[in-house]
Amino acid sequence: MAWIYLLLAGVLEIGFAMGLKYTQGFTRLWPSVGTMAAAACSLWLMTQAMKQIPVGTAYAIWTGIGAMGVALLGIWLFDESASLARLACIGLIVAGVIGLKLTSA
């Protein structure tokens, strides 16, 4: 169950980070509320995951999921660069997350 919590925390991390763009400096009420709710839920799920997953592994996977998701959504939603080098770096993040999962007890 801890790994499911961690995966959900990572997905909410993506929502939190993407939401920051839409808050316009926390001047828009509903995007700000949604962003803060995603952040709070993400952190709560992360604390639940850390009861069984080592802190270094959990944090690296959480940030990796967030970084990968935000980078991919930036390409899709905001027409950010999808260069081969950038996609390769996103692939390295994915490889690192998978590697940490496979090597964790």
TrEMBL record:
It is found in: Cell membrane. GO terms for biological process: xenobiotic detoxification by transmembrane export across the plasma membrane. Pfam families: Multi_Drug_Res. Its main location: membrane. Belongs to the drug/metabolite transporter (DMT) superfamily. Small multidrug resistance (SMR) (TC 2.A.7.1) family. Gdx/SugE subfamily. It comes from Pseudoxanthomonas composti. Keywords: Cell membrane, Membrane, Transmembrane, Transmembrane helix, Transport. PANTHER family: GUANIDINIUM EXPORTER, SMR FAMILY PROTON-DEPENDENT DRUG EFFLUX TRANSPORTER SUGE. This is Guanidinium exporter. It is a multi-pass membrane protein. The lineage of its organism: Bacteria, Pseudomonadati, Pseudomonadota, Gammaproteobacteria, Lysobacterales. One of its GO terms (molecular function) is transmembrane transporter activity. GO terms for cellular component: plasma membrane. The chain crosses the membrane at residues 29-47, 59-78, 84-103.
